[in-house]
């Protein structure tokens, strides 16, 4: 990215600097002692200036006029976005006024390009695609792409790679300033609603490819509009990896704009993608937002759908007591709303967790109740999941024959509905039962088959679970070196995901000697 910077009486053009180059520029103009006396503050100043040479030079000129001013004082001023451009201006000197330089480039734009630039000021997320920009600005994708290239040529956006752009923080502040000055009232909410609707439809399509039998919430007014098509689970995972931050930030903006109906439907639709990638922190946040929005909208159905997802997120964080409370609330809400899908999963999760934590004798009854609720709701995948939980219960009780019967019944259900990914999970459950019965070679074969499915779908948690299970079966079969290979591969994945199960796997590797 390039901007004009005054150097004596002439103007030169410089690329955006690295952090260290930016600090060096400040040291050159302020003196190393002043910069190094407040190193963390100096780095914050660099961030606030977006590492743009012009902004850093203006900042240095201002600080040189105030030699006794602590860097922390100006850093606090720059931290407020609505004051940042004022703080980086020198009255009467347009070459040293950041807003004036941006305004010159902005004024040269044609109407459509300037409209897109303004929309980017309120666009949630740190980077964006032509497809997302087209939705936000109400353009055709091909037109949005051409306009983004015009903005890139004017140094108002930066092209990161094919189909991905970003705008530096200072330019975003300026674009938002222009948006709120020139656009009519209510236009920001319209941008967020269009973009949120696009994420809602797109997430639905991504989840459908991975979990073809997931029970979606109705779109209710957000059906119309474009959405990407995904040829495989790997394509859906790649899209989500690129757009996850945008989804979260759009959801925050939707709540801020009080687009409550959108703000509870989006997390209830997209959360399998967060679970799939084990993004438990974002996963938890989206449901807290969705729960607040559903309550504001007066939707008990929306509350229940978000609470069951929130319970799953709390479970993933090993917050078992909290998860149990949330599932109880989800169960009550689902029954009030007449939502059999959520009722069944709340019962299943309650039964499995109560057994896992306390060996609660009521757990089996909860799991059987879940199978009946799913059956009445016509939810075959949910019924299969409840059978898997019953299999784990039977296995723990030493009844491996009954456990195997439940798992094979679940696999038959998943096969009927062509749910390959869930069938692979069931394969891991079958392997655990076979291992408990001492049939280690059969167990390892099931784990390896599941690993192949998860690797093709780029599902890291699944790969880690399957490999760790295979490692345990191999250890029990007195094949320690093969076990070490599998457990080490699982540990690498779990550590990369900051998964609490990593400690257990690490201990199992140590036990191999």
UniProtKB/TrEMBL annotation:
Organism: Streptomonospora arabica
One Pfam family cited in the UniProt record for this chain: TPR_12
Protein name: Tetratricopeptide repeat protein
TM regions (residue ranges): none
Superkingdom of this protein's organism: Bacteria
């Amino acid at each position: 990215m390039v901007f004009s910077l005054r150097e004596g009486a002439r103007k030169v053009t410089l690329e955006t600097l690295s952090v260290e180059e930016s600090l060096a520029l400040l040291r050159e103009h302020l003196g190393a002692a002043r910069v190094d006396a407040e190193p963390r503050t100096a780095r914050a100043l660099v961030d606030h200036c977006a590492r743009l040479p012009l902004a850093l030079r203006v900042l240095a000129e201002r600080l040189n006029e105030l030699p006794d001013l602590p860097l922390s004082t100006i850093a606090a001023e720059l931290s407020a976005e609505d004051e940042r451009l004022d703080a980086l201006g020198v009255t009467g000197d347009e070459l040293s006024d950041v807003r004036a330089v941006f305004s010159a480039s902005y004024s040269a734009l044609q109407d459509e390009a300037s409209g897109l630039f303004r929309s980017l000021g309120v666009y949630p997320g740190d980077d964006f695609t032509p497809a997302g920009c087209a939705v936000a600005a109400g353009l055709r994708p091909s037109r949005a792409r051409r306009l983004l290239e015009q903005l890139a040529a004017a140094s108002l956006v930066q092209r990161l790679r094919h189909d991905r752009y970003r705008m530096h923080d200072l330019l975003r502040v300026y674009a938002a300033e222009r948006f709120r000055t020139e656009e009519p009232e209510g236009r920001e909410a319209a941008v967020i609603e269009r973009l949120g609707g696009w994420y809602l439809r797109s997430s639905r399509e991504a989840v459908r490819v991975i979990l073809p039998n997931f029970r979606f919430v109705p779109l209710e007014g957000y059906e119309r509009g474009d959405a990407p098509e995904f040829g495989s689970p790997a394509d859906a995972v790649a899209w989500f990896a690129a757009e996850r931050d945008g989804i979260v930030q759009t959801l925050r903006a939707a709540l801020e704009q009080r687009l409550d109906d959108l703000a509870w439907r989006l997390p209830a639709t997209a959360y399998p993608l967060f679970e799939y990638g084990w993004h438990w922190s974002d996963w938890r946040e989206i449901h807290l937002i969705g729960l607040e929005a559903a309550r504001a909208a007066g939707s008990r159905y929306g509350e229940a759908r978000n609470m069951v997802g929130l319970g799953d997120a709390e479970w993933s964080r090993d917050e078992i007591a909290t998860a149990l409370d949330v599932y109880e609330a989800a169960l009550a809400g689902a029954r009030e709303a007449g939502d059999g899908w959520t009722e069944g999963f709340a019962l299943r999760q309650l039964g499995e967790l109560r057994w896992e934590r306390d060996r609660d004798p009521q757990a089996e009854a909860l799991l059987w109740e879940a199978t009946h609720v799913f059956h009445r709701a016509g939810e075959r995948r949910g019924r299969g999941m409840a059978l898997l939980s019953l299999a784990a219960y039977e296995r723990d009780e030493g009844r491996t024959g009954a456990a195997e019967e439940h798992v094979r019944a679940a696999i038959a259900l998943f096969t009927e509905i062509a749910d390959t990914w869930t069938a692979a999970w069931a394969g891991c459950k079958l392997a655990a039962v076979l291992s408990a019965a001492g049939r280690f070679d059969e167990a390892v074969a099931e784990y390896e088959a599941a690993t192949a499915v998860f690797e093709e779908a780029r599902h890291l948690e699944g790969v880690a679970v399957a490999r760790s299970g295979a490692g345990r079966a191999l250890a029990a079969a007195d094949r320690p070196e093969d076990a070490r290979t599998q457990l080490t591969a699982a540990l690498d994945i779990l550590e990369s995901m900051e998964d609490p199960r990593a400690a257990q796997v690490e201990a199992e590797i140590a036990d191999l000697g």
